[in-house]
Amino acid sequence: MANKGKKHQEALKLVDRSKSYEVAEAVSLVKEVAKANFDETVEAAFRLGVDPKKADQQIRGAMVLPHGTGKTQRVLVFAKGEKAKEAEAAGADYVGESDYINQINQGWFEFDVIVATPDMMAEVGKLGRVLGPKGLMPNPKTGTVTFEVEKAVKDIKAGKVEYRVDKQSNIHVPIGKLSFDNDKLIENFEALTKQLVKVKPQAAKGTYMKNASIASTMGPGVKVDVSSYTRG
Questions:
Q1: pLDDT-derived band of residue 146, with 50, 70 and 90 as boundaries?
Q2: Global confidence as pTM
Q3: Are 205 and 50 in contact (CB under 8 A)?
Q4: Helix (H, G, I), strand (E, B) or coil at 134
Q5: Cα 209 vs. chain centroid, distance in angstroms?
Q6: What would the DSSP string read from start to end of 83-95?
Q7: Of the residues 152, 197, 215, 216, which has the fewest C-beta atoms closer than 10 A?
């Protein structure tokens, strides 16, 4: 164990905490310093120059990463009739109505994302106290309250991720696994960065992207230079 600790400390020395790296170099470093014996998730973190307490500076949405996240999401769909059949055909893991509402109230959470048709939200809304704290409540802003059930399910299965600014003005989003080719991690990071620039609130003043970094589940953060994405 002592030897493993020494190796880890040596790896940490490879990261200059005061430097912002080009994304390609940052990805290489993240892989180099990763020491866990499992396929770690790689996450991007951004600190934004917004005030999340103000309604006009809230940032929330969803996008499909070019190469997915490396994780297969389990999708629960609340729908009825033809829309329920559409969800099943699209590959949803669970499709139902009150039966699943009852199961969730009893502590069942064998799913990662919920999609609901608008006509089901009156019932699904009753789960707010249970789903809200876990970040599982369907929301029109992330495309999870929709009659376009087929598209919603397929997008989630293809690697759709949600982003939402927290109370400290940070956004954390998974962009893949360590086992991904470097180019795939780079392209996912760049797509996410461009999306966040695209949804910059007009009310945000000063520097928008204060800093950005990527890290594996157990590894240290590596700062990324995102200045080239924010020009113009």
A1: very high
A2: 0.82
A3: no
A4: helix
A5: 18
A6: HHHHHHHHT-SEE
A7: 197
